[in-house]
């Protein structure tokens, strides 16, 4: 079985919240897999499948920290 990965979601959070975002995704049974791209800048990549991308974005919209979406070239 092959799983399709949607275009990654790139976000920036305060560095102290990097682990928090990762734990949130873990708590939602890995709807998205978080990778830290730059810990000092708080840049994260979240990989999700096409059927979970909207859920990941919804979760990010409702957690109580400031999140900025960033553009990254792959």
Q: Would you mind describing this structure in some detail?
A:
With about 70 residues, this protein is of the alpha+beta class. The chain has one domain (about 10-70). Helix content is about 25%, strand content about 25%. It has helices spanning about 20-25, 55-60; strands at about 10, 30-40, 45-50, 70. Strands 2-3-1-4 form a four-stranded antiparallel beta sheet. The chain starts with 8 loop residues before the first strand and ends in a 5-residue tail after the last strand. Pfam families: DUF4911. This is DUF4911 domain-containing protein. InterPro entries: DUF4911.
Topology diagram in text:
Layout: E1 9-12, H1 18-27, E2 32-38, E3 43-48, H2 53-62, E4 68-69
Antiparallel strand pairs: 1-3, 1-4, 2-3
Organism: Sporomusa ovata
Protein name: DUF4911 domain-containing protein
Proportion of residues in β-strands: 25-35%
List the uncertain runs.
none
End-to-end C-alpha gap? 25 Å
Neighbour order of strands in the largest sheet: 2-3-1-4
Order of helices and strands: EHEEHE
Shape label: globular
Summary?
The chain is α+β, with helices and mostly antiparallel strands.
């Amino acid at each position: 079985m092959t799983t399709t990965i949607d275009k990654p979601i790139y976000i920036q959070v305060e560095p102290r919240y990097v682990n928090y975002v990762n734990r949130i995704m873990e708590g939602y049974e890995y709807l998205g897999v978080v990778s830290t791209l730059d810990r000092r800048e708080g840049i994260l990549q979240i990989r999700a499948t096409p059927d979970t991308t909207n859920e990941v974005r919804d979760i990010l919209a409702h957690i109580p920290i400031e999140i900025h979406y960033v553009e990254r070239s792959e």
